[in-house]
Amino acid sequence: MAEDFYPIAPTDVGAEVNTIRQPLRVRATWELSNAHFAFDSSLLLPSMTAELLELVALVRSNPGCPLSLFGHADPTGNDGYNKLLAGRRATAVYALLTRKSDLWEQLYNNPMGLDDWKKNELALRVMTSHLEETSSAPGSAPKFFKKYMDSLGVDADGAAFSLEPKDFLGKGADPGGKAAYQGCGEFNPIMMFSLAEQARFSRPDAKTERDEQNAVNRRVTAFLFDPHLEVTPAKWPCPRASEGVAGCQKRFWSDAFFRRANRPERRTFPSDRDTYACRFYDRLTDGPGRSSGIRFQIMFAVTETAEPPVLAVRGAEEPEQRAPTHEVVKDNAGRKYHVYQVDPISAAPPSMLQLLAADHPQSPILGLDAISLLAGKATPAGMLRGLGLGLPGLPPSGSPPDPGSSLPAIDQPKEFPNPVVPEGEPPEGPGPMDL
Predict the structure, then answer these.
(1) Residue 355: its pLDDT value, please?
(2) Which of 138-147, 313-322, 423-432 has the highest average model confidence (pLDDT)?
C-alpha cells in the first residue's frame, strides 16, 4: 500500500478542519516461543519466565503502550484446529499476565484435541513439581493456578509483575477478549518449507524433524502499540480466540492461496515478505519497533497567489499551533506544488492533528503521500503519482497515472483504501488512517 495516495477535502470555509488519525503503529514486539508450552498444549511451562523478563522490560520502557497478543501455529494440519489452539495459547498468556485464573479454569475444563490439561494429570504434575508441593489429590490442579501464576509472573528482582485488562487493546470491554488476545492459527508462518522439504517431511518417519524445523512458527507474539491508542472491540478485525477461521479469511490477501503454498525454495517472512496470508497482521508487522516519527506530506497546487497557503498544525489537545516545514517542488511538466512535511507522532496525546488551510481558499489540500508516510522520507515522484484525481485546482490534462495503477490487477483498490485495515470499518481512536 506504499504506492497509494489518499485525497482529503479542502478546508476553506471558516474554522473547518481535516483531522488525520495516527496510523495503527507497533512500538515494540515480544515473542514467546513454542518451547515454553507443553507439547500440542496451551499449558505454560516454568521455562517461560526467562522470556517473560523481556516483556517486563518492554512494558516498563514503553509506558502507556497497550498490548495485543497473537497466537500462532505451524502450517501443518487443520486450519480450524490450529486457529483454536493458537487462540488458547494466547488466552493462557493473557490470563497469566492479568492473573485471571478463571481463564485457565476454562482451558482446564474444556479440553480440545491433544490440548487437555487433565489428561494424565498434566497440569497438576507440572505445577506441583515447580511449586515443590509434596501432596496433591488427583484433579486438584485448579487450586494451584493462582500460586503457579504468581511464581511465573515476576520481574528480574523476583518482584510480582502483572497487568490489568485496561493495559490491553479493548481495555477488557469484551468478555471474549476481542482485540486483547486472538489466535492466527497457521495463517501467518515465519517460515514455509520448500516443495522438496514438504514432500520429505510428509513421511511418518520425518515427523520429529518436521516439528523441530516448524518450531519457529509456533509462538505467541505481543505487539505494544503507540501510547493512548484506543479501539472499539466490535470494530477490531480479528475474531476472538474462541471463534473459527471465517473472520480471519475475510482479511486474507487476494493471493493468500499462493502465499500459503509450498514453492521450489524455502521462504521466510523477514527475507521474502510473502508468508503471511492475513493482510491486517502483515501490515502490523511492517517495521515493528520503529520509534521514528511518521511523516505526512500535504500538497497544494501553486496558483497566482503570491504567498503560499498557511498550514497550521496542532494536536487535538494542544492550544498552540505549529507551522510545518514547507518547500516547493515541480513535476515533470513543470507544474509547481507547495509541499508541507508533518510529523504527527510529535503531537500531544491522543496524537491527532488538525490541518488548517487559511488565506488561500482557492488552493485545496490535494492529498497525503503514503509513500513518505510509510517510508519516512520525502518522495516527490511518489507524490506526483497521486495527482490528477479530478479535484479542484488540478490541471485538466497530462496528469500522472492513477495511484493504484502500479499495483497488481488482482489487488487494485476500488477507492483509496485504509493503509492498515483493508476492508470494513477501521478500529476507532487514533488508529489506522481514517480520512
Answers:
(1) 46
(2) 138-147
Burial of residue 46 (CB within 10 Å: 0-12, 13-18, 19+) is middle
Residue ranges covered by each domain of the chain:
5-23+290-411, 26-284
Q: Could you tell me how far CA 48 lies from the centroid of its own chain? A: 23
Euclidean distance between CA atoms 92 and 103, whole angstroms = 7
Instruction: With beta carbons less than 8 A apart as the criterion, state whether 107 and 181 touch.
Output: no
Read off the pLDDT of each residue in 272-286 and give the average, rounded to a whole number. 91
CA distance 51 to 270: 21
Burial class of residue 394 (count of CB atoms within 10 Å of its CB; 0-12, 13-18, 19+)? middle
273, HSE (Cβ side, Cα atoms, 13 Å):
5
Residue 2 main-chain phi, psi, to 5 deg: -70, -5
Torsion of CA 89, 91, 97, 100, to 10 degrees: -130
Cross-strand pairs, 32: 220
| DSSP for residue 174 | S
Question: Closest Cα to residue 283, out of 215, 227, 223?
Answer: 223
CA distances from 315 to 140, 227, 295, 372, 403 (A): 55, 15, 15, 20, 29
Asked if the peptide bond before residue 350 counts as cis, ω within 30 degrees of 0, the response is yes
Q: Give this prediction's pTM.
A: 0.69
Collapsed DSSP state (helix, strand, coil) of residue 33: strand
Residue 297 — very low, low, confident or very high, per pLDDT cuts 50/70/90?
Answer: low
Place of cell 489466535: 183
pLDDT of residue 193: 97
Write down the pLDDT at residue 229: 86
C-alpha cell at 304: 497566482
- Of the candidates 297, 324, 289, 265, the residue with the CA atom closest to the CA atom of residue 7: 297
> What is the amino acid identity at position 45?
L
With CA atoms as reference, report the closest residue to 424 among 285, 287, 247, 274: 247
Fold of 26-284: 60s Ribosomal Protein L30; Chain: A; (3.30.1330)
